[in-house]
Protein 1
Amino acid sequence: MNKPETTRGLINLANQNKLLYRISNTLLKIDDLEKILVKAVEETLNATTALTVSVALFQEQKQSLVIKILRRRNGKTKPNQMKEFKLGEGLAGVAGKTREIVQAIDVQKSRDFVGNKKDKNFGIIAVPMLFQNELIGVLNLSTDMERQINRQEKEFLTVLATMIAGSVKNSQLYTKMSNQILNLSTLFGISSVINRQQTQMTIQKIVEAVPALFEAEKAHLLIHNSDKNSLQTYASSNIEKNQKLLEKELTLDQKSFSAKVFFSQKPSYLNNTIKNKTILPKYRKIFGIKNQLSVPVMASDRCIGVLHIINRKCGAFNNDDLKLSSVVALRIGNKIENSRLMKKAETEWDLFSNIIENVNEGVLVIDNKDNVKVWNKFLAKTFGIEGKDIVGHSGFELAKKIGTADLYWKILMSEKKRANVF
C-alpha cells in the first residue's frame, strides 16, 4: 500500500468526508466478521499515514481485548504480535476502559505501553470502538507523528472507529441470528410424536438444545409437584454433575426467583445475580450463576413449571431472549400436556374398551371409510366370527359373511350413519 498524501499529519483533512463515505459503503456490503476486519485495517491504512493498524475486539466474559488482526503498511503480519490485554492494561486497555482516545507520541516514554520498548521510536493511537455506548473493541494505529493529534483528526478517528464498531456488531448479530435459526430448527425438529415412554427423553433433548440457542452454558427445567407444592427437576443440560442438588425439591413457599416466575407467570432475567437475594446462594455458587433467564412453562393457561437458562457472561440476556424463551417453554409445556392428555385418553379408552368388549349386547362400529373398528365378544359368540378375523376389513365384506349384504347396501345408499347395535 502506498502512503497517501497528507497536508496535516495523520489524514488528508480536505478529503475526510469522501474517505468516510467510501469506507462506510465498503463496510456496509460485508457480513463476514473476518472480511470486515481485513477491510477495516486496509481502509484505515489507505486513509491515514499510520505505519501499522490493528483491531482488538472486546471479550466481555474475560473483560479483555484480543487483537484479531494486525496489518503493516508493507502488508506483513507477524503471528507472535497477536496479544490480549485486560481492560486498563496497555494503551488499548486504557482506551477501552476510559472509552477515550489514548495517544503516546513515543512509546519509549509511555507508562501505559506494554511490550518490548527496545529499538522502538514510534507512537501509538488507541481509539475505542463504540456502538450505542457498548464497547466493541479498540482500533490501534502506530505512527511516526511527533505531535498530538488535533481535534479534527480525533473526530475523524472517532467516526471511523464507530463505523467499524457498527459493522462488527451487525456481523455478530447476523451470526447470532443465523445460529439461532439453526438451533431453533434443531429444537423444533425433535420428534413431535409423544407417548408416555418417550416424553421425558424428548423433553431432555429439547432442554439440551436450549443453551446453544441463547449462547448460554446451562439449562434447568423444573416441573410443579402439586402434592408437595414444590418444583422438581425434570430435565437439565450441562449440570448433571450436581446430581444430588438436582434431586432436591424447591418448595414454592421460599422467596426464590423460581417462585416469583412461577406465580407471576411472566418470564424475567437477571444480568447480575450477585446483588439479587432471590437467587438462592447455594444454587448460585454450585451452578456458577452470574446471569439467569427464567421462563414459566405453560400448559392450558396454567403454569406447570419453570425453565432456567444460566449464563456466566455479563449482560447476557435481553428482551428478545425473553420472547424466544417463551416460545421454547411453550413447546415444552405443550409436549408435557400432550403426554398427559394421551395418558388420560389411553386410560379412558382402556376403560371404554373393557365396557364395550364385555357388555351383554352386540356392538359394531364401522368408520366412514367402511372399515370395521369394533366387533365385541357378544357378536363374536353370536355369529361365530372372531374379532381378529373381521376388524380392519370392510363392512360390506362383513355383511356378506352374516347374510345381510342387501340390507347393508340399502343403508349405504341411504347415507345413514354406519354404526349399529345388534
Note: The longest helix spans residues 319-358.
Protein 2
Amino acid sequence: MVRNRFMVLVLFLVFLRPFDLIASSPPIMSLEEAERLIDASQFGSIPAYFKTVSRGTAIKHYNINLRGVYREPGLKVIMFTISTPIVAGMSGSPVYVNGKNIGAVAYGFNNFAKTYWGGISPISEMMKESEAGAKPTRGTSAFSYQGMLFEPIGMGNRLVKGLESISGGKFMVTASSSVKGNSFGKNPVLKAGLPIVVDLIEWTDEKGETVTVGGLGTITYIDDKGKIFAFGHPFLNSKNVVYGFRTAEIIGTVFSQNNSFKLGGEKSDILGAITFDADYGISGRISSGDLAKLHHFKLEFKNEGKIAHSFDIKVADSILTPILAQAAFRMIGDIYGAPLNQEVSVTQVESKVNIDGQKPILWKGLFASNSTKFGTQTLYISSYSAAYNAFFAGIYGFLFENNYGLKISDVSMSVDFIHGANKVFKLGAYKFPSKVVYGQNPVLDILLIDENNLMPIAKKISVKIDWSKVERPVYTKETVDTDKVPEKTVQGMLRINGAQLLLAGLSDNEKQKFFPGYFLSPEDFLENLSSRLEITSQKLFVRVAVRAKSGLFDEAITSAKDIMPSGVSVDDSEWQIIEGGLKERKVTVKNEGVVIFNVNLPDIPKGYVVDQLLDEFFLFEIVLN
C-alpha cells in the first residue's frame, strides 16, 4: 500500500512537472511594487540587472538603473539606463530587483552618448495578457519618451525579402547539416536568461541541409508548469499562433552604433511551441503537442524534366502564414537556382492542395518571364516568381482565408524550369469577316507567333452561332452604310483574350457563375475555385457577342424559375427570413442586349503560354445574303 502511494506520488510529480528541462524560477515583482521602489529612492532610480548570453551558453549579468515608468493607452514600460549598447537578441532578457523578476528588456534607444536607454515590459503585464488571450492591439510598438524614440529590440540581423513589413524585416537565418548530436543534448535545461530561437520557416533539402528563418531573443520567465515567456514585445503580433522554439549557443556579439546584434550558433532540437504573440511578447509551452498545427509544404525543383532538388517545408501557424510561405518559396528559389529576374525562362507548375475531408485542389500552370520594354532594353521578371505569386494569391491565400472551416492539411508543388527563349505566344494576325451573313457560321483565321519566331502556330475554325437567338437583320451585304439607320443595324463583336483579361471582361450573367456573391456549402466554394483554375495561361479565349433577338430576354425573364424559395409568401411589411439558408444556386436572367458564343480552341503546345495581357476586339455586322 505504501509502495502504491509512493508510485502515485511519483507519477503525480512527473505529470505536474515533467520538465528536467526547467530550472527553478525566482519570484516575480509586480509593476506597482517596482514603481514604488523607484519613487521612494532618493536618487530617482534604483539598481537592477538583467541576464542574457553574449557568447556561448554562459549567462552574463548587466547592471542597469531603473528610472521610471512610462504609460500610454495599452502600454506600460519601465525605463532604465545602461552603460553598454542594447543589441538585437537581448529581447526578453529577464530583469531582477532584490532577487525578483520584474520583466523583459524589450525596447531600446541607442545613441552616441555614454549612457544608453532601454525599456522593460513588466512580467506581470506579460502574464496578464497571455492569460486573457486574443485582444485588440495597440497598433504600434514604438513610443516616444523624453524626446527619444524607443523601438522594439531586433531579433536578427538579416533582411529577408518578402518580410520587410513585419517584425522590422530582420531575422536570424541559419543553416545546419543532417549530422546529429550537439552540445545541448536531447533535453537542455532551460532557464530565464538563455537564448530562445523562434522558428517561422524551416526547410530541409534532399541532402539533409536544414535552414531556419526566425527570431533570436532571450527567455524571460518559465513557470513550474512549463509555460514560457520571452521577447517582451510583439514578434508578428498575430495573437493565437504556433511557432516552434529552441535554445541555442551564441557565437558572439557584434557592437555597432547602427546595428548591434548577437550571432546565433548551434541550436537545440525543437523544445516546444509558442502559442501566443501580442503586445507584451510571446508565450507558450515546453511541449510538442501544438506543433502538429504547423503548415507543411513539399516543393520539387526540376530542370527540363529532371529532378534537381526537393524540399520539406514547415511554416508557422499565423494569420501571416501565406506571407511566410511565399517568403520561403522566394528564399529557396534564390538559393537553389530558380530562374533570375533578368533570365529568360518558363516555369511549369503542378500543385496539389490537400484539404481535410474534401477533394484536393489541383492546378497546372505555365508561366513565362514577364517582359517590359525600356528603350532598347527588355527587362524580365522571373517566371518562377510569377508562378508562386499566382499560386499564393489565387489559390493558397484564397483557401487559407476561407469562411467555411476548411483546413489545409498539406501542399505539394512541382516546378519545372525551362531556361532559354521566352516562349510566349502573341497575336500575330487574324481574319474575320466584317459582314457576317445571317444563318451562316463565320470562319475565324488566327495566327500566333512567339517572340523569336521559332514556332508560329495557326488555326482556322468555324464559329458556331445559335441563330435562333440573334436578331434578324434588315440590311443586305449590298446595302451601303449611308442608307442604314443605326438602330436597325445588327452588330456583333469578336473578342480575343489571354486568361488574365478574360475574367475582367465577363458579362454580368457570366460573373454570377465565376464570382458568386455567396456559396451554398464548402463543396460549392471548392467547385467554384476549381472551375476558375481551368482558365489557364495555356489557353486562348475567343468569344463572339451578337445583338440578341428582340424579346429574347423579356421572354427568358418571364419564364425564368422563381428565385424565391417555395413557401415564401408575399408580405409587404417585412423581410422573409429563409430558414437554414439557400439549398440551390439562385441566378437571375439579365437583359444584356447580346448573346455570347464561346469558341473552343485547343490548348497551346506544351512549353508555351499565351500573352496574359492579350486583348483584341473587332466589331462586325450581321446582314442578309
Note: The chain has three domains: 31-292, 294-419, 425-561+584-623.
Protein 3
Amino acid sequence: MLVRRVAIVLLLLMTVSVGTASASVKPKPIDTSDISGVQVAVVESEIRDLGAYLVTIDQEHLAAYLTAVEASKVVSQVQTTQVRSVPTNNGAHSDAWWQGVSVCEQSGVNSPYYGYFSIMDGSAAGLSWDQQVAMANQIIARSGDGAWAQSCQNAGYAASPSG
C-alpha cells in the first residue's frame, strides 16, 4: 500500500513538474537512496501500470466522444431530411392543416390577443375560426409558410399532409 502511494506521488510529481516546467525551472531530483532496488522496481511497475490505465481511459473517452459526434451527425442528417421532405405552400391551407398549427401555436385555444395562430399584431383577437383561417391564408399568400415556425408548419403537415 505504501509503495502504491509512493508511486502515485512520484507520478503526480513528474506530471506537475513536466506540466509546469519552463526553461528556467527544473524539477528537484528525488532522493531514492533509502529505497531498495525491489521497491524501486515495484514503484516503476506501478507507474507503468498507472500510465497504461490512463492511456486506456483516454482511449475510452476518445471512443465515447467519437461515438457522440457520429450520433450527432446522424441526428442532424435525419432532421435535415425531415425538414426537406415537408412541402412548402404559398396558397391557402385546409382547416385540418390550420388545426395542427393552432395546436402548436396556442394549444388549440383561441387566445384573446393572438387568436388561434399567434398572429402577433393582435388583429385576430375576437375573430371566429373561419375569419382567422382566412386571415392566416392571406399571410401565407404574401409570405409563404415561413410566416410560422418550422415546428408548427410540421404540425400542420402532420395533421394534413397535402396542406
Note: The chain has two domains: 2-18+33-85, 95-159.
